[in-house]
Amino acid sequence: MRSFKRHILFLSGIVVSVLLSKTCLLVLRTLTPSFAMTDSYTSTVRHGVKNRTAALDLSQKVRVLCWVMTQPQHLKSRTQHIRATWGRRCNIVLYMSSEASDFPTVGLNVSEGRNQLYWKTIRAFQHIHMHHLDDADWFLKADDDTFVVLENLRYGLSKHNTEEPLYFGRRFKPFVAQGYMSGGAGYVLSKEALRRFVKGFADGLCSHDTNIEDIGLGKCMETMKVQLGDSRDVLGRQTFHPYPPHYYLTRQLPRPRPWYLLYEHYHPVEGPGCCSDLAISFHYIDAVQMHTLEYYTYHLHPYGYKYRFNPDERSDNRNNN
Amino acid sequence: MMYEGSSFMKGMILGGIFCLVVSFFETFNSGTHSEGHEHLHHHLKPVSKDELEKLSESQMSDWTLQVRVYCLIMVTPKLLVHWATANDTWSKHCDKSVFYTSESSKVLEAVDLQEQDEWARLRKAIRHAYENAGDLRWFFVARPTTFAIIENLKYLVLDKDPSQPFYIGHTEKSGELDYVEYDSGIVLSYETMRRLIEIFKDVDRCPERGNALWKTPEETQLATCLKYSGVFAENGEDAQGKGLFNKKSVSSLISDSMGQNPADVVEACCSDMAITFGGMSQSQIQVLMYGVYRLRPYGHDFHDSLTFLPPKDSDND
Predict the structure, then answer these.
(1) What is the tens place of the pLDDT at every residue in A101-119?
(2) What is the predicted pLDDT for the residue at B35?
(3) Strand partners of residue A142
(4) Cβ A51–B251 below 8 Å, yes or no?
(5) Where found (chain B) (predicted)?
(6) If you ran DSSP here, which 8-state letter would residue B136 be given?
């Protein structure tokens, strides 16, 4: 009996020991992968190492409502790429179309077509004025083939007062005495400018007298005494662009103005001096280009490179070599 | 009681030893996956951020000064537009960039090798570069149709010793031979260059003029010569394993990604630290130059551990 008991104890010793060891080893093994997993998790976190405090502060101080002029046929081919890239950087983004949908789009009381564009603009701003006037400080209009860098827009607007009647964009000179802002490049209204635009239509001072929305809006801005701002950077380089980057950046021999620069209010520069480092928009951007610009702006980075242009520094940056 | 207790203890000890032995054999077996080890050997990544943060200021600045790149850009008059574009853009970021041509052009400066055969030309260029290296220890060979971000190249080799043999780029296989693709750029350390100069003397293993009947591409000829010198191709990748050397254009890669990863196009596409892109037109290259060195969102700070200054007398970066 005694030896039986001894044997039982011996066997149970083995069993307990095996169970204990197995449990120990199991715990150790699962601990190691989870350290590795934590590592790989942090290294795949998007923008994990960038500091965006300055950008985040601005997004709270300078709230931008973006409305994108689009249509049902473009949602898949164009607008979804905006939604996937810069759309989410707006404080509020509204996709304005003739029809409401789950995209989500806001349905305006208009039909589709080039001759409806100014109606769309009027209805869009009226909608925004009615529903979102207090939700933002500035109101941007963009096309569904415009690429916008919101951080640079906020930076540009941060020095201005939204209670003043101002509007910014790429300034064109013809058709309107004081000039107007290109629709494709995107333009942005201050709160006061928005109030005056809507009031102009309410009081009959502005009317739908053209199909060309940027000219129409420009005329109404002039009527309502809204001032055109200068959106160029401290070196005089443009930030809003009505055409894609390669139109402007490619070096050219001195030549008479090409057709796409004929409307320019400010003297256009061709080659690298055309465009600010802190560009705000480019237009006629297709889906591939949209993601390409997203990659260039927010991802592709030359490690450790000290940028030449630092607008917050007092000294003249050109000579900083 | 004691007597019974000791049986239990004996059982415990025996069970414990048994477990230890079993797990020892398990790890031993998984360790003999030599394939896994070889696989690791051919992937080359930059120094990790953690490692960089451990360095002192002076170590950091030593490294920044030591990692200097000599660019060999292999041109021909046929590629004049790309030659001019490379001259005006990325090549300015090399510590020294030398254009090697098959025949001279009145318009642009280059070392005229007076050689039509591409492999012979590459050999001559390598020899010239090695002799004129000065204190530069890293060499980057590319055609002008490739765009390179030299700062990211420096970051990749920052913690690598150039007195060791390195041969880095996008690796492909030709039969059993691993070679670095020419179109996405070839990175060679000083030691590799030295070994190449040596093996160039070996007419059997590394002939200058091969069989006239069929031409082996220079990239595989280079790999063969290097193999005989004990130097093997390594694939340059970022910390996530994304290739840093690309022979396709950015838009081509983005377009591919839109088809394969529609939910996450940019994240899945290309590395933030990409070094090369190929197949781009001259205007696409000028836009890329702006996109890399200028266009950025205000307020985003990458907090890089090192600083590379912009080149003098340049207006597009």
Answers:
(1) 999 999 998 999 989 999 9
(2) 40
(3) A68
(4) no
(5) Membrane
(6) -
What's the CA gap between B197 and B135, in Å, rounded? 17
| Residue reference for tokens 């309107």 | A176
Q: What is the mean pLDDT of chain B?
A: 90
Give B314 to chain A, closest Cα distance, Å. 10
Cβ distance A54 to B258 less than 8 Å, yes or no, reads no
Judging contacts by C-beta atoms under 8 Å, the chain A residues touching residue B304 are 303-304
B291·A50 Cβ contact <8 A: no
- Residues A123, A134: contact at Cβ < 8 Å? no
**DSSP letters of A38-91?**
HHHHHHHSTTTT-B-HHHHHHHHHS-EEEEEE--GGGIIIIIHHHHHTGGGGSS
Nearest one of A234, A226, A167 to A196, comparing CA atoms = A226
For the entire predicted model, the pTM comes to 0.84
Per-residue model confidence (pLDDT) at position B26: 66
C-alpha distance from residue B250 to each of A288, B8, B169, B266 (Å): 10, 69, 17, 11
Q: Which of B20, B51, B298, B312 to mutate to test the interface with A (most CBs of A within 10 A)?
A: B298
Report the residue from B18, B291, B300 with minimal CB separation from A300. Answer: B291
B64 confidence band (pLDDT: 50, 70, 90): confident
**Which residues of B, range 14-43, sit inside 8 Å of A by Cβ?**
14-16, 18-20, 23
| Neighbouring C-beta atoms of residue A244, cutoff 10 Å | 19
Per-residue model confidence as pLDDT tens digits over A262-272: 999 999 999 99
| Prediction ipTM score | 0.86
Q: Regarding beta strands B69-75 and A187-190, do their DSSP bridges make them parallel or antiparallel, or are they unpaired?
A: unpaired
CA distance B68 to chain A (A): 14
Q: What is the dihedral of CA A162, A165, A169, A173, to 10 degrees?
A: -170
